[in-house]
Design goal:
Layout (H helix, E strand, L loop, with lengths): L11 H8 L5 H11 L11 E6 L8 H6 L4 E8 L3 E2 L3 H10 L3 E7 L7 H10 L14 E3 L14 H19 L4 E4 L1 H8 L11 E4 L17 E5 L7 E5 L3 H9 L4
Parallel strand pairs: 1-2, 2-4, 4-5, 5-6, 6-7, 7-8
Antiparallel strand pairs: 1-9, 2-3, 8-9
Length: about 260
C-alpha cells in the first residue's frame, strides 16, 4: 500500500493491478477474480463491515454506521517504515460510533523479520484490549506491490516469517492475529500451509459472488472482503456470524 521510497498510501486494488503485467496467465486470471468487485446489492450474508487505510483519509463514521457497518479494520502500519497518517481518526472514530474495530499491518517479509514487524504494529496502535470493541490485530500478507510475488522467500521461509509474526504478536498481546490473504497467494507462497488455522481467524479476499476454495486448514472464514467499493468507504466486508459472536472474538471469550 505504500511507495517504498516515499511512503505514500495506495489502495489494495491499485497495488494488485500493478502485479498483473508480471504474472502468468493462470495467476493473472486468479488475481482478476478478486479485482472484479461485486455490487453492493450482491453483498453476501453476514454482519456488514469495512476496512480502510490512509487512502480513504478522514472517514465519515456516523454515515458508515447509519448505513449498517458494524465493524472495521484500519490499516496501522506497513513494514517498519510506514504508519497511516489517518490512523487516529479512523481507529478512534470507528470506535466512538459504536463499531468493533481492529488494526492491521501490511507485511513486507523481505524488509525485516516477522518479529520486528509484529512489534512495529503493536508499538503503533495495533495492540489489543478486552473492552468488547477491539479485534485482534490482523496481518495483511499477500501480493507484493514492489517486487517478487513471494518476497524472495521459499514456502518454508514464508511459513517461518508468518509464524514469527504471529508468535510475537501473541507474546505482546495475548491474542493470535487474524490473517488476511487470498487463496491463490497463500497456495503459491506458503505451499498452502495449514498450520496457522487452529489459532488465527481467516480474513479471505475474493471479489466474486462466492467465497471459493479457502487456504488449507481453514474449514470456514471469519471475515470476507468481497468488494473494493460499495456502501461503505474502503473495501467491503462481512463477518461470518452475528454481532454477538463478533463480540466473543473481540473479547477472546465472554467480556
Amino acid at each position: 500500500m505504500t511507495n517504498p521510497t516515499q511512503g505514500t498510501p495506495t489502495s489494495k486494488r491499485r497495488r494488485r493491478l500493478r502485479l498483473l503485467a508480471g504474472l502468468s496467465a493462470m495467476a493473472t486470471a486468479a488475481v482478476l477474480a478478486i479485482l472484479t468487485p461485486t455490487p453492493a446489492s450482491a453483498a453476501p450474508a453476514g454482519l456488514p463491515g469495512m476496512d480502510v487505510s490512509g487512502h480513504q483519509g478522514n472517514v465519515n463514521w456516523s454515515a458508515a454506521w447509519n448505513n449498517g457497518a458494524r465493524f472495521a479494520y484500519v490499516k496501522a502500519t506497513e513494514g517498519i517504515g510506514y504508519t497511516n497518517p489517518y490512523f487516529a481518526q479512523q481507529y478512534n472514530g470507528s470506535y466512538n460510533v459504536g463499531m468493533i474495530r481492529g488494526a492491521y499491518h501490511f507485511g513486507l517479509p523481505d524488509r525485516s523479520s516477522g518479529t520486528t514487524q509484529a512489534n512495529y504494529l503493536v508499538d503503533h496502535g495495533g495492540g489489543w484490549s478486552k473492552d468488547g470493541k477491539t479485534l485482534p490485530g490482523a496481518l495483511d500478507i499477500e501480493y507484493n506491490p514492489y517486487g517478487a510475488t513471494c518476497y524472495g522467500k521459499s514456502a518454508s521461509g514464508m511459513q517461518t516469517w508468518i509464524r514469527d509474526f504471529l508468535n510475537q504478536y501473541h507474546a505482546r498481546t495475548g491474542r493470535w492475529a487474524t490473517i488476511y490473504t487470498t487463496t491463490d497467494w497463500w497456495s503459491t507462497c506458503t505451499g498452502n500451509y495449514s498450520g496457522f488455522a487452529a489459532n488465527s481467524p481467516l480474513w479471505i479476499a475474493r471479489y466474486s459472488g462466492t467465497v471459493g476454495a479457502l487456504p488449507a486448514g481453514w474449514g470456514t472464514y471469519s471475515f470476507w472482503q468481497y468488494a473494493s467499493s460499495g456502501t461503505f468507504p474502503g473495501d467491503q466486508n462481512v463477518w461470518n456470524g452475528t454481532l454477538d459472536r463478533l463480540k466473543v472474538l473481540a473479547c477472546n471469550g465472554p467480556c
